[in-house]
Structures are given as C-alpha cells and as structure tokens.
Fold Maltose excess protein 1-like, chloroplastic.
Amino acid sequence: MTSPPPASLSAAPLRFHLLASTIQLSFPPKCRPVAARNLSIRRRFRSSCAFASHSPPPSAASQRWDTLTARFAGASNLPFLLIQLPQILLNYRNLVYGNKAALLAVPWLGMLTGLLGNMTLLSYFAKKKEVEAIVVQTLGVVSIYVVLGQLAMAEAMSLPYFAAISVLVVSGLVLNFVNYFGWLHEGLWQLWEDFITVAGISVLPQVMWSTFVPFIPKSILPGTICCIIAVGAIILARLGKLSDRMVKFIRSISGWTATLLFMWMPIAQMWTTYLNPDNIKGLSAFTILLGMIGNGLMIPRALFIRDLMWFTGASWASFLHGWGNLACMYYFKSISWKFFLGATLSLFVWTGIALWRDTKAYGYSSPMISLQELVSGT
C-alpha cells in the first residue's frame, strides 16, 4: 500500500496583483480607450496616456523600453504559476488519497481575501488595457478559485459559501472582460465598482485587526464599522450629496485598499515570525524568491507608465515580502549567505537597471525626475 502524501502545505504566495483597482476617475489620467490590444509598438505606446501626458514624441529607445516592460510584466506569470501549482497538486494528491484533514490547514478566509484583491486589480488593469497585468490577475483569480474548490470538496469550507464565491468569480470575470471590450453599460459597471469598494474597505481593517489577536480581543467590529461607513459614503455619492473631489476619492479608494491589503501580508508574516521564530523553518525560501521575482518583473512597467499604486505594491512586495522575509530567514540561519547574497544583488541590480532605463527612455538626466513624476502624477 502506497503511503499517503505529506500533509504539509506550502505558504500561500503574495502576488502583487492587487496593485490597483477600479479607478479611472483620479488616475491614470483619462485618455481615449483602446478597443483592443494593437501589436504595433507605436500604437501601444500611444495607449499609455500617463507616459504621453508629459513626454515628447516617442523615440526608438522609449518604444523599445515600452515593449520590454510589457514583456517583463507578462513574464511575471511564470513565477506566480510555479508558486500556485505545487499547492494545487498537493491538494489533489491529498484528495485522491482521502487525506482530507490536510486541507484543513489551508485558511479559506485568507484565500478569499486574496481572491477579492486579485479581482479588484483585474478591474483596474482591464480599464487601463494593460493586457499582461490582466493575465496576471486572471491567473490569480482562477488559481485561488481552484484551491477553494478543492477545499469545498474536502469539506474544509461549506458548499453554500463556495456557491456564493462561484457566483462572485464568474460575475467578476464576465463583467471585467465585457467592460474591457467596451460592451458593458456604465451603470452596471459602476455597481460593480461600488461593490468592490465596500468589500475592500470592510476587509482591510478586519485583516489588520485579526493579525494581533490574541493580544487584542477577537472582534468583527472593525470590518463592520468600516462596511457601514463605506455603504453610507456610496449612498451619499449616488445622491449627489458629496463634492466631486470626494466622489473621486471614493472611486479610487478600492484600489488602494487592495494594495494595502497585500502590503499588510508581509507585515503579518514578519509579526508571526517575531512571535514564533521556530515557525520560520516552515517557510519555503524558493517560494518567497519566486514571489520576489514575479513582483520585481512588474516594477519597470509600473514605473514606465507612472502608475503609483502599481509601483508601490510591486516594490513593497519585492523588497519587504520577498527580500525582507529572506533577510529574516538568513538572520535565523534558515538559508545560506550565498542564497541571500544572490537574491539581494539580483533585486537591487534589477531595480537599478529599471530606474536607469526609464531615465534614458524619457530623456532625463536623473532617475529622481522619474520618481518625482511617479509620485506627483505630472
């Protein structure tokens, strides 16, 4: 009789797909939507309105860098896929061998939080026509949904919850892709934006609060209070009781809540490591490295199109969740100095190259000008 597979489960990956959401009112600046991706470099370059808004006509060097950054963002799918596949395959083996108890170690609420973040960012990138980022977010939604389906099969989550999640996933994917091609009514899309805004504002404070339990009382009040506030703000905006500036802020906040949610995940991981240093042995250095690579590949694109939200999330995930956790592992002698040195040099050199090439693409003399434009949005 073949022995059952090990029950240990790999840590869920942090992928900074959630780097932005359904927000076109405040940023990026409005531009004429592109009906479909054009393979022409020049046409593609014009679609990046954030770039075109403060630069001279594109040069050959800037067009090449525009194409390369898009390919880098698309290539980030590979490390993210390599992160998720082992978890899915392990769950499948446990189900085949009847080892359903192993799947109880996977927190379905945490997976659902990641699913919400990916769906939010999918909406954002679909509006920006960033095809490579759309693929990344879609992969995140589908892979997490597959894991949730496995948990439902193992009875680790109730079927009514999974059914509700299935409706959310199918509706979200359909709405996003129909909206991508400009076939969706604006009122229906606004309802979807309102939903993810309320969900994001409700989930973020609840996750932050739960991180410090049992040092603080276990409670759902943070999420409940923020949900009531979010619903009230949406109603006031719909009734025209708020200023245009406040309406724009409400429309943009869902993306930042998704970004902050993913930014909080490494903090929660480090807090857990601080409280229980022995738990660091359960972390996979290879998984963390893959997450760092995937997010790092998106940094040049986010910088090039001057997307502050995307850049913030990708950089945070690369440096804090990726390199920061590797630094903790090195400190506790869980990885060798050669592994840590190689990861450190790779990340910092790659970031330096991204800043240097972006500076050359825009024809500037210093990367600080690029960063200043990124932050100011001008």
Residues 1-57 have pLDDT under 50 and may be disordered. Residues 244-275 form the longest helix (32 residues).
